[in-house]
Specification:
With about 200 residues, the chain is of the alpha+beta class. The protein has a domain of about 110 residues: Chitinase A, domain 3. Helices cover about 30% and strands about 20% of the residues. β2 and β3 form a beta hairpin. One of its GO terms (molecular function) is peptidyl-prolyl cis-trans isomerase activity. Keywords: Endoplasmic reticulum, Isomerase, Rotamase, Signal.
Amino acid sequence: MGTKKPQLLRLAVVAVAVAAVLLTGNNDEPQPNLHLIYRPVASPKDICSVFFSRFGFAHSVSRSGSPASAKKSADVTQLQIGVKYKPESCTLQAHKGDKIKVHYHGTLTDGSVFDSSYDRGDPFEFTLGNGQVIKGWDQGLLGMCVGEKRKLRIPAKMGYGERGSPPKIPGGATLVFDTELIAVNGRTSAGAAAESDDSEL
């Protein structure tokens, strides 16, 4: 205990000496408050933190961490289903075992498009709930009405997992799909397509 206090005081004195050099060597900059640099009881961690801030290290570390933080916040761990449009009359619904036809627009969380049936002008047809597609689709399209539009945010575990689907889908990617149900078992709901607005997708 007896040796720690002198060591801390010596570190604080060194901090003040360096701060004085910085202040006198750069007269054009605003003078910082000395209480931000000198502390009667200071730890090495405190002094290093002040020095890093003085030379801009803390700022650059923060900026380099931003993209990772943004990606983390955009990713999801559970399936998210958002209804963008639903016709007033739901005469046809998609159930497990039904053959359904779906238009879709697929992107990553950064907005980059990896596939779109809209661009091809050809909706995708498959049997719902039979494992012909990713789990996010088999679960996210259940109960959907013909003419309905949904936005699906699908976690990697219900998409392409850690392996991804190169070259467009990296491993561990969250998938975002704008979907529209066109037909169920070859049947369409009269007027449903005309009522929906593709510009929202």
